Amino acid sequence: MTLDLRADCSRCAGLCCVALPYQRSADFPESKPAGRPCRHLGAGAAPYACGIHDRLAADGWRGCVAFDCAGAGPHTVQVSYGGRGWDAAGSRAAPELPDAGAAFAAEQFATFRALLPIFELAWYVAQARTLTAPDGRAPDAGLAAELAHAAD
Questions:
Q1: Residue at 23 is within a domain
Q2: What is the CA radius of gyration of the chain?
Q3: Which of 49, 118, 141, 152 is 20 to 30 A from 94 in CA distance terms?
Q4: 56: left (phi > 0), else alpha (psi -120 to 50), else beta?
Q5: Per-residue pLDDT tens for 17-53?
Q6: Cα separation of 87 and 137, whole Å?
Q7: Number of structural domains in the chain
Q8: Distance between the two ends of the chain, CA-based, in angstroms?
Q9: Residue pLDDT, tens place only, 129-149
């Protein structure tokens, strides 16, 4: 199976906006624990859209601008959960979801957090496969084969 290593928010359920924590810093104007939806999630045109997407950097959300899930979010929702978002079994008011909804959401968040570093690593492997040495030599054939195997 070839992984799609592109972030595609239209195929996700705002997992990065819910499953991941952030701390008040130069990158975020406030703190949020993992599992709680960002207060801007769902305030946009689409159900999982960011209400301030067009002004994230200006409003101090530089961490959101810089973040790229490398396709882990869409893969989690579309492949691992058949297109169902974290709120499919209950209310969007996590963590106050009904028991079944909370369990489903927690499982999906854990899946996303587990897949995220795998997809990030796969992205780096894919990038490495495109590199050539400064003198124009192609990469070592054995290394190229290992990278190809790792990416698949």
A1: yes
A2: 18
A3: 118
A4: alpha
A5: 999 999 999 999 999 999 999 999 987 678 889 999 9
A6: 50
A7: 1
A8: 6
A9: 788 778 877 666 676 677 666
